[in-house]
Design brief:
Elements lengths: L3 H14 L3 H13 L5 H19 L9 E9 L4 H17 L26 E7 L3 E9 L1 H4 L3 E4 L2 E3 L3 E3 L3 H15 L7 E7 L3 H11 L11 H14 L15 E8 L8 E7 L4 E8 L5 E5 L9 H18 L2 E5 L4 H5 L6 E10 L2 H7 L12 E3 L4 E4 L5 E5 L12 H8 L3 E4 L5 H10 L2 E4 L5 H5 L2 E8 L9 E15 L6 H14 L8
Parallel strand pairs: 1-2, 7-8, 12-13, 13-14, 14-17, 17-18
Antiparallel strand pairs: 1-3, 3-10, 4-9, 5-6, 7-9, 10-11, 13-20, 15-16, 18-20, 19-20
Helix pairs in contact: 1-4, 3-9, 6-8, 12-13
Bound molecules: (2S)-2-hydroxybutanedioic acid and iron/sulfur cluster.
The site of (2S)-2-hydroxybutanedioic acid has 9 residues, from α5.
Length: 516
């Protein structure tokens, strides 16, 4: 198995940097559904530009390495202990090379292992089979979309849809609701895998395994095929759209599996995956470990480069009519903030400081390492590499889900005089109120567009609180032309609140029985 380690390294790098062909096709279809010039269409254009950039530069599509999960089928007699060791080494190397962010964190101490290896990470499932080659599939599933997974226990009352019983119609309600509750926070448009039955653990596992099915795959079970089609159609009428900005494309794929359950339990488990649906596979020679065949690469490989030019010229004219563009450079005054309204596009030049979960928690009780008065905080955990001269370089730097900072954000802004925060998915009522009282603004960047934003970062000025690890440290960055959309302003307006409300109203249309 002299080539096994190299093959796994290639699989890891390819999965992190190059989206599968079936996923590209689904994104292309979503693009075709959105009208040129809308926020959703512009966001999708950023997403597809990012997909091409990651591919061209062999760098992470999204900064979040997520949970690496391997599903490996081996012939009888394959040495799984050796394979496991090689997988660890391949992951260590890919992390060193900036293809993965160090993402494995001790749950009690918060310490980052630095190489993606630790108790529980990565996840490796071996299965024996009768064939003579090794089938290895890898899913890199990000934390933000993982947080939008949901499990229902039937029978139950589902908000907006009423009673859901232990039947196909009850299952239908659970799945539709799962799409609604994700809003844009898991970087919609997304894919869902659904597991019906099992126990709480195996139900989720079945849901995640559905994500291994090709997007074009039609369910062998007729009833489930019908349900998948129904969810695809109705899910896309909820109007959540790309990044939860509203729009026609909310769901890119829905795959449903079923297994037996216990008489007392009836779980419907949903695994939500963002548009950055990184899963690939390889077939390996069992003797040498060399790659014989790549999976999820059938058919034509879509590159979005050609659409870009056409879309850019079309949407530029409309964008000028629709959205106002405002240039911001820190330090920002309260007056500048009060002028901004939901829908404005902000172009940031100058200083940005990253801060995510650990920093927000820390700042509640400590002073900030620098003066944050009038500054902009970016909810971001980048992929960084240090060169020989000790200088840091940004390899990927998209936004993280902001709602996790909801308990802290308003207080932190007031305490330090911060005027703007950039993130994705929006924030809740507590932050909205603080923005109004203090004079602050929430800016939404496009989730997963890690190469697109890394390109705007011209210099790493420094870093503080490195003890929290690379993703959680406070990075001081100089940016140029960093674009984001005002989605919560200082006048009590929130696009996220509005989209939630209208999508809930649409969800309520689907309370009547459909499947018997
Ligand atoms: O951890 C991150 O950088 C992002 C995360 O995947 C998220 O979606 O919030
Ligand atoms: S930031 Fe968005 S695209 Fe990236 S892993 Fe998280 S949910 Fe997925």
């Amino acid at each position: 198995m002299e080539n096994f380690r190299q093959s796994i390294y290639d699989l890891v790098v390819e999965t992190s940097t190059n989206l599968p062909y079936d996923v590209r096709r689904a994104i292309r279809q979503a693009k075709e559904r959105e009208n040129a010039g809308t926020r959703a269409a512009l966001s999708l254009a950023t997403i597809t530009k990012n997909i091409d950039m990651a591919d061209d530069n062999v760098l992470p599509i999204c900064q979040d390495t997520g949970m690496l999960t391997f599903e490996i089928k081996v012939p009888i007699g394959a040495n799984q202990l050796e394979m496991e060791k090689d997988i660890y080494e391949a992951i260590r190397q890919a992390t060193k090379d900036g293809k993965l962010r160090p993402n494995s964190v001790d749950s009690l101490t918060g310490e980052n292992s630095g190489d993606n290896i630790g108790p529980g990470t990565p996840i490796i499932h071996f299965h024996q089979w009768k064939k003579d080659y090794i089938d290895t599939r890898l899913i890199i599933k990000g934390g933000g979309c993982e947080n939008k997974n949901i499990q229902y226990s039937l029978p139950m009352e589902i908000e907006g849809l009423g009673r859901a019983g232990r039947d196909l119609d009850g299952i239908r309600k659970c799945i539709l609701h799962s799409v609604y509750q994700a809003q844009g926070q898991g970087c919609s448009a997304g894919f869902i895998g659904v597991g019906i039955g099992g126990d709480r653990i195996s139900g989720y596992e079945l849901a995640k395994k559905q994500l291994l099915r090709d997007v074009s795959d039609v369910n062998e079970n007729e009833k489930l095929a019908e349900l998948e089609e129904y969810i695809m159609e109705k899910g896309n009428t909820l109007g959540i759209g790309t990044m939860g900005f509203g729009g026609e494309a909310t769901l890119l794929g829905c795959k449903i599996g079923s297994m037996n359950r216990l008489p007392a339990s009836f779980f419907v488990s949903v695994a939500y995956n963002c548009w950055a649906f990184r899963r690939l596979g390889v077939e390996l020679d069992a003797e040498t470990g060399a790659i014989q065949n790549w999976l999820y690469k059938e058919g034509e490989k879509i590159s979005f480069k050609n659409d870009e030019a056409a879309a850019a010229s079309e949407s530029d004219t409309e964008k000028q009519e629709e959205a106002r563009e405002v240039v911001l450079q820190a330090p920002i005054t309260e007056e500048q903030i009060r002028e901004l309204k939901v829908g404005d596009v902000v172009v940031i030049n100058g200083d940005l400081h990253t801060g995510r979960d650990a920093i927000h928690h820390h700042l509640m009780e400590h002073d900030a390492p620098i003066d944050l008065n009038g500054q902009i905080i970016y909810h971001c955990g980048p992929v960084m590499l240090k060169d020989k001269d000790g200088e840091w370089h940004v390899k990927a730097a998209g936004p993280t889900t902001s709602i996790r900072e909801e308990p802290y954000q308003g207080d932190i802004m007031k305490k330090f005089g911060i005027r703007a925060v950039i993130g994705k998915g929006g924030m809740g009522p507590k932050t909205l109120k603080a923005l109004e009282e203090h004079g602050g603004v929430y800016l939404n960047a496009i989730g997963g567009a890690a190469q697109y934003y890394a390109d705007c970062i011209k210099k790493v000025e420094g870093v503080d609180l490195m003890e929290f690890g690379i993703p959680e440290a406070m990075w001081h960055l100089k940016v140029e032309g960093f674009r984001a959309i005002v989605t919560m302003d200082s006048h009590g307006n929130s696009l996220h609140k509005d989209v939630d409300k209208t999508s809930f109203e649409r969800l309520q249309q689907y309370g009547e029985k459909v499947f018997s």
